[in-house]
Amino acid sequence: MNDAARRQEFLVLMQRLEAEPAHVLHVAELALCLFDRLAPLHCLEASDRLLLEAAACLHDTGWSVARDGKAHHKESARLIRAHPWQHWSAGEVGLVAQVARYHRKSMPSAEHEEFTALNEAEQHRVRHLAALLRLGDALDRSHTQRIRRIEVEILPDTIRLTLASARPLDAELESAQRKGDLAKLLWRRSLLFERIRLPQPA
Length: 202
Description:
With about 200 residues, this protein is mostly helical. It has helices at about 5-15, 20-35, 40, 50-60, 70-80, 90-100, 115, 120-140, 170-180, 180-185, and strands at about 145-155, 160-165, 190-195. Strands 1-2-3 form a three-stranded mixed sheet, covered by helices on one side.
């Protein structure tokens, strides 16, 4: 299938349901950067990159129906599954929905029926894509697109992430340590965040 048509399809759905497109597009940018930099750890295919982009762009669509936000991650997954997709297979849609569902709160679990229905390879994809999305979302915790660049160094027991920003990152760093739980578990490394201070815009 044509990736341009597939991307356009989820972007149209995002624009229809998403109240903060700048936030989710930035989360997608951050998550895709992490996908590229952490490839030696997640060992995913190039085709999985588009699944991550779709999940990132749609992860907050549940806010359109869950106004209090408490279960918006589950509503996002439901809305993704309910959409009449033209350029995505049912299996792909299911994976995108699960990655979006796990962008917050609990991690993928054997207690979750939809997750356990996946085969081993699909569970691997959901876990690792969700880990990337959780980090990407955390790194725009303030919804103000503060991080301009990420540099990643993979060390034997640590992943060092250097974040370039002109503004404080207190909320982002606190959230990233918390939502980096799945990444730490999967990749068996601690997360070390460092900031490069960019000059304030004139």
